[in-house]
Amino acid sequence: MLPALKSKPHRPKSKRSPAILFLLILAWSIAAAWVLAIATHAQPANTIDAVPQRYQLGQELYLENCATCHIAVPPAVLPVQTWQRLLQDTQHYGVQIKPLVDPPRILVWNYLRFASRPLNQDEEIPYRIANSRYFKALHPKVKLPKPTQLSSCVTCHPNANAFNFRSLTSEWENSP
């Protein structure tokens, strides 16, 4: 004879909320994305904007060749066609310079092409930053000196010498 089975009182199974599972997956995804973003966007010490690794050597060469004589202009303030002209021109704003040769020229060109913007079809290629619509769009309420000099950038951008144009002086930091 079989022993009598004792029946246990019936307890409902505890259901775990799908919301908790969703939050755990979401938190894990955000953490993984953050780690990947840090790993894939390693920056040289002297820049603030993210530059993909394949363009970082071009950026370093750009800074080495341009920032030794004047403040390096962020590529985004001039169209790609201006940069193309500048890389080919031995008369750099009235100063005779030795042009870059390949392969450094190609690396700098790839960086500038990545970081600059296109020119409208009917637009004239600006040779000076003050004539660039991108430069003007980034400085909508700024009364710029005439002529606009690269050395005047530090007036509002105290870290321009370190290729950081995002930090502003206190006068402009909270402007509308």
Mean pLDDT: 76
| Number of DSSP-assigned strands | 2
Order of strands across the biggest sheet? Answer: 1-2
Which sheet architecture does the biggest sheet show?
A: 2 strands, antiparallel
Query: What is the CA-atom radius of gyration, in angstroms?
Result: 28 Å
Structural class: mainly alpha
Strand content: under 5%
At a glance:
The protein is mostly helical. 39% of the residues lie in helices and 2% in strands.
Describe the SSE topology.
Elements lengths: L17 H23 L12 H14 L13 H9 L2 E2 L2 E2 L7 H12 L17 H6 L31 H4 L3
Antiparallel strand pairs: 1-2
Q: Which key features would you list for this structure?
A:
176 residues; mainly alpha; two-stranded antiparallel ribbon; 6 helices; elongated
Report on this structure.
By secondary structure, the chain is an all-alpha fold. The chain contains six helices and two strands. It has a two-stranded antiparallel sheet. A hairpin with a 2-residue loop joins strand 1 and strand 2 (95-96). The longest helix is centred in the first third of the chain and has 23 residues, at 18-40. Residues 39-46 have low confidence and may be disordered.
